[in-house]
Amino acid sequence: MVTGASSGIGETFARKLAARHYDLILVARREGRLQALAEECRKQFGVRAEVWPADLATDEGISGIAERIAARNDLTLLVNNAGFGAGGSYDRVEVKPQLDMIHVHVVATARLTKAALPQMIERDRGAIINVSSVAAFAVLARRTMYNSTKAWINAFSRSIAEELRGTNVRVQALCPGFTVTEFHGTPEFKKFDTEGIPKFLWTSSDKVVSSSLKALRRNKVVYVPGLLNKIMATLPRMPFGQALSRLVARKKI
């Protein structure tokens, strides 16, 4: 199962897994895109592909998917990929997008993981990939909720991994950096200048997903793909890291 499968990293996960002959359950709001992707995967790879449209920013959407997961006993891999970003000074931003991020990044990840784990533990095999971000390691102004919810994903994944020691069920928090997707093309990022980010910092969703699946086999719990992203994840934890983050937030760098 891949959430947020209608575009970006989620769509790439779906294609890569179908190429490896996984049957798919695709979850996102945009049913039309999911149906087109499902049909493509059926024809190209000969796999089964189900479409479960849902809005994971709502309690109803989350509960519906969680209940359907719990009713099955054949889920091998869950990719909690659904997510979005909305920034601005926290005292001025609209509250709904901030709360929606909590629902999509935190509540949905927690509920769907809870629904999937019992069956995986009973079979003693399976894996969950929670898509986080290098932003989880930083403290940046005007990205308060996004950074915080991604940091929660990392902590959550680490804790679940500890609980799963001694089993063959694995968990990964995937922390990509700047990735070429539709993520920065949403209205929330209308003031974000992608041209201001050096080209060498960008990577493709194909590379992110391929390296994530390799790292999962090596049981990497918190995985940051790419050397530059590893450096970006390390800098905020160094003595001068917070000062550097402030300069970045103020667009001095």
In words, what does this structure look like?
By secondary structure, the protein is an alpha/beta fold. 47% of the residues lie in helices and 13% in strands. The protein has one domain (2-249): Rossmann fold. The chain has eight helices and nine strands. The chain has a four-stranded parallel β-sheet with strand order 4-5-6-9. It has a three-stranded parallel β-sheet with strand order 1-2-3, covered by helices on one side. A two-stranded parallel ribbon has the order 7-8. The chain is globular, with a radius of gyration of 18 Å.
Summarize the structure.
This protein is of the alpha/beta class and 253 residues long.
Strand share of the residues?
5-15%
Kindly report the spatial arrangement of strands forming the biggest sheet. 4-5-6-9
Residues in helices, as a percent range: 40-55%
Largest sheet: 4 strands, parallel
**Quick one: CATH class?**
Alpha Beta
Structural class computed from helices and strand pairing? alpha/beta
**Domain unit count:** 1
Q: Order of helices and strands, N to C?
A: EHEHEHEHEHEEEHEHH
Radius of gyration using CA atoms only: 18 Å
Which fold name corresponds to the CATH topology? Rossmann fold
At the fourth level of CATH, the homologous superfamily is NAD(P)-binding Rossmann-like Domain
What characteristic shape results from the CA principal axes? globular
List keywords for this structure.
alpha/beta; 13% strand; Rossmann fold; four-stranded parallel sheet; 9 strands; 253 residues
